[in-house]
Amino acid sequence: MIDLGKYAFAVVASYGVSLALLGGLIWQTVAANARARRALEDHEKGKKNG
Amino acid sequence: MSIWEYANPAKFMRTTDRLLPWVVGGAVLLSVTGVVWGFLTPDDFRQGSTVKIVFLHVPAAMMAINIWVMMLVASLIWIIRRHHVSALAAKAAAPIGAVMTLIALATGALWGQPMWGTWWEWDPRLTSFLILFLFYLGYIALWAAIDDPDSAADLTGVLCLVGSVFALLSRYAVLFWNQGLHQGASLSVQSGERMSHVYRYPLYTAMVGFGLLFLALLLIRTRTEIRRRRLAALQAREMRA
Amino acid sequence: MLALLTRDLRLAVRAGGGFGLGVAFFLILSALVPFGVGPDRAALAPVAPGILWVGALLACLLSLDRIFALDHEDGSLDLLATAPMPLEGAVAVKALAHWITTGLPLVLAAPLFGVLLQLPPVAMPWLVLSLLIGTPALSMLGAFGAALTVGLRRGGLLLSLLVLPLYIPTLIFGAEITRRGAEGAAIVTPLVFQAGITLAVLALIPFAAAAALRVNLR
Predict the structure, then answer these.
(1) In this structure, what DSSP letter does residue C150 have?
(2) Rg of the Cα trace of chain A?
(3) What does the domain layout of chain A look like in residue ranges?
């Protein structure tokens, strides 16, 4: 573990906040994309069957 | 062969389908490398370990501005040439830009606390970013509020145009209002050796990485929007049939 | 154009509230601030220019959604759009009517509120002048925001989110003029900037607002 000295809180919190925000954005993006793709596929499949 | 071919949603979907793995791969590789490399850099003799924050703060701030410019260009393309993909790309970019602005503000606050002794200062750069964040919020809210997609694209396009002018105007008005604490640009071509190599290379890597990350997210989000539009169009057609 | 202006003014007067509401809001705000800040002259005087300007901004915001909403509901906006007069002109006239009913009363009443907030007397002319120069831009930008949100059911809140960031430059220079006036410093630079912003807004925003209206009337 590297020594962050007296500014450890600022550095760790910055990385934590940024990665959390980016992670949330990526998760939301991927989830929304999967949802849209599934909805579209379901719709097109349903049309062929019905 | 012209660039406008990619304005065809089907062509856009096919091309991005092939392109996306490479962009995602590059984005993951470079942003992870840049950020981890940045985290492992030695402490600065004045700023101590807080110098590590720069590898998140500067790329995020750079992207926050660049994404707004990209939205402006995309809005202009929509308004002038009426390519739907362009409008959807502008819509897809806005939340990414808002998150980047938020990261720049948050890391800036966390960095400012030990360095300047305050979380927040009404410094021109900080204030301008807060204003930019407000513009992102207004843009996203307007997209969300309007049902008809073409009207929404038109109105948000006009808002983006006017907003760009006022964001720039606010930037200089704020400069007039209060001279600040924030240092000038850390990287500039003229001043050359302002920053040591130890920090410069990981910073460049992180900047390119964030750019690719934005591109990857933008492509995925635009594809999401295209699929949603297609689904809505299919459902509307069946309702009529 | 003159007919449209007199019609809008007459409607505002007859419907009531048009003239009075903004000023009444401004009065309440000026009365509330000392409760929050404390009655001390030394505490009130430095913040007075800012409070007065923010108050003017908010008072102006109150009546913005009325610029187009009523005309949109009863269909007269469609008539205006098809009238021989360019829509840009109609937008400008409507913004002017809004300014006469809310901006102008604020300008005239501002010295009174300045007294309430212990603004130094030397700053009064500058407060009035800065409001006189700045408020037309507020009305015009407000008309743009109202044009963007005219078709929406709950546009009011969105309108403030869209319009308030656009008010920032006007607010900065307006408060700066008043503050410098109070300190007896040179006021030419912010005054020129303020006038420049207002003129540019008056010249260009009608086109953006008319474009937004056309989209909403489609």
Answers:
(1) T
(2) 21
(3) 25-50
Provide the pLDDT for residue B93.
93
Coil, helix or strand at residue B43: coil
Q: What are residue B44's phi and psi, to 5 degrees?
A: -80, 150
Question: Does a structural domain hold residue B165?
Answer: yes
Taking the Cβ of residue B168 and every Cβ of chain C, the question of whether any pair is shorter than 8 Å is answered with: no
How far apart are the C-alpha atoms of B98 and B115, rounded to whole Å?
25
B9 lies in some domain? no
CB contacts of B130 in chain C (<8 Å) are: none
Q: What is the DSSP string of C69-136?
A: HHHHHHTHHHHHHHSSS-HHHHHHHHHHHHIIIIIHHHHHHHHHHHHHTT--GGGHHHHHHHHHHHHH
In angstroms, the separation between the Cα of residue C156 and the nearest Cα of chain B is 11
Name the domain count of chain C.
Answer: 1
Mean pLDDT, to the nearest integer, of B132-159?
A: 90
In a domain, B152, yes or no: yes
Q: Grade residue B190 by pLDDT with cuts at 50, 70 and 90.
A: very low
Q: Please tell me the distance in Å from A36's CA to the nearest CA on chain B.
A: 6
pLDDT in tens, C144-183: 999 998 878 777 788 888 999 999 999 988 888 888 888 8
